[in-house]
């Protein structure tokens, strides 16, 4: 009887492990402008403290090398010295749809030169705006450039408009309007959790399993303020926070769509489109007017 119970418990444990939901956290645009609620150093220290306090393993900061003034350099050093990855997000965050292949390659290589001196630098590249080339020549040209330079295409699977939530937050403060931080946190967490669960369901639909997800966030004040609340809610819903390196061991890392996406929906969206899904490749919260309406209702209570 005891043996049967032990076997049953082991089977349940194995099933739970196979169904585990895993997520890695990344921050784009560092060192992002910091002229609002926090200054740059305060933001960095708060974000590092929150990640440590909530036992978040190594995250990645995809960085823009044109922002490496004295303060920007110090901010990236703080992240690197805390054990986090510094990676390439181009020199000045261009829109690939508006540049030639040669111009974009030059931009990428300049960032490689400037960022590679940082501790914990990894040859991971995140396309700004997730735009990977609106022609076959540009798409395939950058794929070759990344391969020739030993780079990983650091795709994302979980997309959102956290950058617009930041704008709503900062603009409200500039107007002198008091913000209830508890309501702000709830709004932020709710929007991100909804989009995360949506993309996970989309992945399961088309892959048959929940992949090791990569969450796109930005290095912003609301990230520093509320990342701990987001992590707490993720764990409450059964998610395991993993290092970014682990996420890029998933088999979808090697996936390459044959389609040309003028606007890329992320790796899960690419796969869904290639599997025949034509609509709803982006979660409904990736809409500025929607977020403004929800912000007014839930945060400002208007």
From TrEMBL:
Choose one Gene Ontology CC annotation of this protein and give it: membrane
One annotated GO molecular function is: hydrolase activity, acting on carbon-nitrogen (but not peptide) bonds
Question: Does the keyword Lipid metabolism feature in the UniProt annotation?
Answer: no
What superkingdom does the record give?
Bacteria
Q: What is the lineage of its organism?
A: Bacteria, Pseudomonadati, Pseudomonadota, Gammaproteobacteria, Alteromonadales
Answer whether the UniProt record assigns the keyword Metal-binding to this protein: yes
Q: Which InterPro entries match?
A: Glyco_hydro/deAcase_b/a-brl (IPR011330), NODB_dom (IPR002509), Polysacc_deacetylase_ArnD (IPR050248)
Q: What is this protein called?
A: Polysaccharide deacetylase
Which SUPFAM superfamilies does the UniProt record give?
Glycoside hydrolase/deacetylase
For biological process, the GO terms are: carbohydrate metabolic process
């Amino acid at each position: 009887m005891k043996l049967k119970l032990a076997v049953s418990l082991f089977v349940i444990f194995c099933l739970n492990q196979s169904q585990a939901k895993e997520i890695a956290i990344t921050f784009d645009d560092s060192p992002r402008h910091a002229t609002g609620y926090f200054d740059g150093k305060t933001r960095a220290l708060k974000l590092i403290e929150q990640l440590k306090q909530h036992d978040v393993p190594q995250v990645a900061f995809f960085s823009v090398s044109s922002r490496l003034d004295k303060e920007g350099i110090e901010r990236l050093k703080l992240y690197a010295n805390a054990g986090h990855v510094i990676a390439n997000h181009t020199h000045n965050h261009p829109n690939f749809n508006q540049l030639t292949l040669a111009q974009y390659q030059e931009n990428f290589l300049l960032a490689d030169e400037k960022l590679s001196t940082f501790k914990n630098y990894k040859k991971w590249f995140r396309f700004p705006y997730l735009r990977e080339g609106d022609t076959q020549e540009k798409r395939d040209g950058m794929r070759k450039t990344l391969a020739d330079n030993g780079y990983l295409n650091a795709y994302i699977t979980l997309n959102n408009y956290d950058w617009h939530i930041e704008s709503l937050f900062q603009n409200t403060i500039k107007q002198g309007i008091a913000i209830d931080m508890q309501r702000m946190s709830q709004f932020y967490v709710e929007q991100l959790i909804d989009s995360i669960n949506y993309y996970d369901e989309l992945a399961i639909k088309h892959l048959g399993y929940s992949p090791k997800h990569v969450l796109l966030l930005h290095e912003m004040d609301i990230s520093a303020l509320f990342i701990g609340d987001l992590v707490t809610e993720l764990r409450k819903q059964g998610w395991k926070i993993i290092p970014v390196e682990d996420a890029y061991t998933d088999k979808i890392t090697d996936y390459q769509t044959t389609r040309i996406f003028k606007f890329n929906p992320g790796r899960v969206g690419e796969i869904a489109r290639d599997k025949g899904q034509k609509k709803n490749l982006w979660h409904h919260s990736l809409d500025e007017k929607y977020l403004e309406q929800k912000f007014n209702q839930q945060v400002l209570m208007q």
